[in-house]
Amino acid sequence: MKIDNSIKTVAGISVSDGRPRADKNTGVNPNPAPPANTASAERSGAGGGAKADNVHLSPLSSQLQGIESNLANSGVVNMARVEEIKQAISDGRFKVNPEVIADRLLETVRELIQSQKGKPW
Question: CA 19: distance to chain centroid?
Fold first, then answer.
């Protein structure tokens, strides 16, 4: 079985609101946003009226939300196949082919090495 790592994640960014998440270990947000009233005052100047912040999302954001929804609703594991394999193991019919396992493991390692070439660690 190959693991598909084609979906790239952005560490520390929440899909729902776009704000950095708090560190899981410390509970502290590494880049806290300024309070809303401070940000408005800085943008509006010392004596001017408060300006509202506007956020414009690209069509890509709705596509990402659709993909996220599809992934959440789809089964990642084929449970019928899992049950079939479990039954074969219980019945003693499941045959392990070590050569195939070794070949596929090496193929996966080669693919991972190829995908990492040229990327900084």
Answer: 15
pTM of the model as a whole? 0.32
End-to-end Cα separation, the chain, in angstroms: 26
Q: What does the chain come to in residues?
A: 121
Q: What is the pLDDT of residues 1-39, one digit of tens each?
A: 556 655 555 555 555 555 555 555 555 555 555 544 444
62, 70 contact by CB (below 8 A): no
Enter the tokens of residue 88: 């074969």
* Whole-number percent of the chain with pLDDT over 90: 30
DSSP string for the chain: -PPP--S---TTB-TTT-PBPPPTTT---SSPPPPHHHHHHHHH-SSSPPPPP-----HHHHHHHHHHHHHHHS-SS-HHHHHHHHHHHHHT-----HHHHHHHHHHHHHHHHHHHTT---
pLDDT at 7: 58
